[in-house]
Design goal:
This protein has 380 residues and is an alpha/beta fold. It has a six-stranded parallel β-sheet, with helices on both faces. A three-stranded antiparallel β-sheet has the order 7-8-9, covered by helices on one side. It is built from 16 helices and eleven strands.
């Protein structure tokens, strides 16, 4: 097997919150050398946010080993704004192919690490900024996290089935979309650099990424001001509570699947009512009643035999035990330095010849300071 796809790419990672670390996790798993620049002040903030103050060094090490987003990355602990850090940072920038940062607009500039300064130092540098609302526009300086991006994009208003109020998705949708967009933007910029010889700025806004979530809604409704109210879901897609209290999800939108679903439930008379808005609520109520008469396992046996689109709604622990997820390499367990087994996720990008590879678990902040200084300052 060949080396991982990005083994010739060096990434300098200033990111802290989910979109940036997700981006650099993908790049690291695909072979890039990623050096995290970790700021003591930012680490203290995160410890406060996530309730990690006062942990012993051993507990901190296991916590870092469990951190999927720290995998395959080296760590340098320093204050980027401190003048004594400047020689090492400049040496790293000169060697870097990619820089990823998620500070609010203007902060990197105040530390003397803005795009204009660093691109002058290294004209081939791909400089990727991931922020809530991007580097331009009236909301450029607005602070916030995932739900704020979803709100700006019009996506949060469509989440949930309660017609009276929207809901939080419960998973970091905008964060991961933004991280994925950052990977795409970086790879596109690296490709362009092969043609031009020059780096460029990649500007990723979480609010931009979240707007992709309303694309299908806009495509199917000619007047965005007259969208169907939230909660008016289709009869052919549902979350059904079964007799054992567990839930099954179905997505039988294509007519032949809907017909089979209705036949399995013993209600072939519902087949012509798939798009009947006037009968929607009555059909859903009856489907809920029927689904509550059997256990989730009984329904899944019937649905699998019939070939419909159905799956139990797994809890995360169940997803990690699922045979398909294991077969796809998505549920690896590694061993931390103290012998603790830590559950990770595999890389979701599968390449046949230059596959992603595991090199090491997340390292403690500053674990690579001596090595990085020796490597990058010795040749000055």
């Amino acid at each position: 097997m060949s080396s991982p796809a990005l083994s010739d790419v060096f990434v300098l990672d200033f990111s802290k919150f989910l979109p940036g670390p997700y981006c650099t996790w993908m790049l690291a798993d695909l072979g890039a050398e990623v050096v995290r620049v970790e700021h003591p002040r930012e680490l203290a903030k995160q410890a406060q946010v996530f309730g990690a103050q006062g942990l012993s060094t051993a507990d901190q090490a296991v916590r870092r080993a469990r951190d999927i987003f720290a995998r395959n990355k080296q760590s340098v602990l320093l204050d980027p704004g401190d003048e004594t850090s400047r020689p090492l940072l400049e040496a790293l920038v000169r060697r870097a192919d990619v820089l990823v940062e998620d500070y609010r607009p203007g902060v990197m500039e105040k530390m003397g690490l803005g795009y204009e300064v660093l691109s002058a130092l290294n004209p081939r540098l791909i400089y990727c900024s991931v922020t809530l609302c991007g580097q331009t526009g009236p909301y450029r300086d607005k602070p916030g996290h995932d739900p704020i991006a979803l709100s700006i994009a019009g996506a949060l208003s469509r989440v949930g089935e309660d017609p009276e109020r929207p809901s939080f998705p419960g998973v970091p949708v905008a964060d991961l979309l933004s991280g994925s967009n950052a990977v795409i933007g970086i790879l596109a910029a690296l490709h362009a650099r092969q043609m031009t010889g020059c780096g460029q700025r990649v500007d990723i806004a979480m609010s931009d990424a979240a707007m992709a979530l309303i694309a299908s809604t806009l495509s199917r409704n000619p007047d965005p001001a007259r969208l169907p109210p939230r909660g008016k879901r289709r009869v052919d897609t549902g979350l059904w509570r079964c007799a054992d209290g567990r839930w099954v999800c179905t997505t039988d939108m294509e007519p032949r699947y809907w017909a089979t679903f209705c036949e399995v439930l013993g209600r072939p008379d519902f087949i012509p009512l798939q798009l009947d808005a006037d009968r929607r609520e009555a059909v859903i109520a009856e489907l809920e009643r029927v689904m509550a008469t059997r256990s989730s396992a009984e329904w899944m046996a019937l649905f699998d035999a019939a070939g419909t689109q159905a799956m139990p709604v797994y809890e995360p622990a169940e997803a990690l035990q699922d045979a398909h997820n294991a077969a796809r390499g998505m549920t690896p367990v590694y061993e931390a330095a103290d012998g603790t087994a830590v559950q990770h996720l595999g890389c979701p990008i599968k390449l046949s010849d230059t596959a992603a590879a595991f090199r090491h678990l997340g390292r403690m902040p500053g674990a690579d300071n001596a090595d990085i200084r020796a490597r990058f300052l010795s040749d000055r």
